[in-house]
Amino acid sequence: MTWDYLAGFFDGEGYVNCGYRLRSQGRYRRFAITITQADRDVLEQIQNFLAQNEIPSQVYLQGQRIDKRHPRPCYQLQVTGAENVWGFLWCIEPYLIVKQEQARKGIEMLEELGRQARAGELDPRIHFRYASIAEDFKS
């Protein structure tokens, strides 16, 4: 497994999700990388590669593919957490073709949130995770 292989796989089967979640403390942004695939073994190989590079991920059963003749399971690999998503995007971005602009926007957004957290512009109860990675975004 290599970063360029993973970038090609992500170009075809993955996406970046940025949304809001509501918690008792308020609203916060949630970032996730999702790759969907019918072959669980491939996702587990990707999961092992990411773990070797200190990027945690989860593989789980998403549901059934809609195919009346041959229904089969559909699996997803997810990378969550601002630091993990940033690391994933940073490693694959140079090799992306289709989703390179999407990855760049995700990296820029996470870096800006890190700068805001470091400057104290975000509510630390809601955005504490960005403050903890702000040092990584300095350079």
Helix-strand layout with pairing:
Layout: H1 3-13, E1 14-23, E2 26-37, H2 40-52, E3 58-64, E4 73-80, H3 82-92, H4 100-118, H5 124-133
Antiparallel strand pairs: 1-2, 2-4, 3-4
Helix pairs in contact: 3-4, 4-5
Keywords:
globular, 5 helices, single chain, 139 residues, 27% strand, Endonuclease I-creI, alpha+beta, 4-stranded antiparallel beta sheet, disordered C terminus
Overview of this structure, please?
- 46% of the residues lie in helices and 27% in strands.
- The chain is α+β, with helices and mostly antiparallel strands.
- It has a single domain, classed as Homing endonucleases (Endonuclease I-creI, Roll), CATH 3.10.28.10.
- The protein has a 4-stranded antiparallel β-sheet.
- Strand 1 (14-23) and strand 2 form a beta hairpin.
- Mean pLDDT is 81; it is low at 125-139.
Structural class: alpha+beta
| Overall outline | globular
The overall pLDDT, averaged over residues, is 81
The helical percent reads 40-55%
Quote the CATH topology. Answer: Endonuclease I-creI
Helix and strand succession? HEEHEEHHH
Strand order of the largest sheet: 1-2-4-3
**What is the distance, rounded to the nearest whole angstrom, between the alpha carbons of the first and last residues?**
28 Å
The total domain count is 1
- CATH-derived architecture: Roll
Low-confidence stretches: 125-139
Look at the structure and give the CATH class.
Answer: Alpha Beta
Question: How many beta-strand elements?
Answer: 4
Strand percentage:
25-35%
Instruction: Please tally the helical runs, counting DSSP H or I stretches of 4 or more residues.
Output: 5
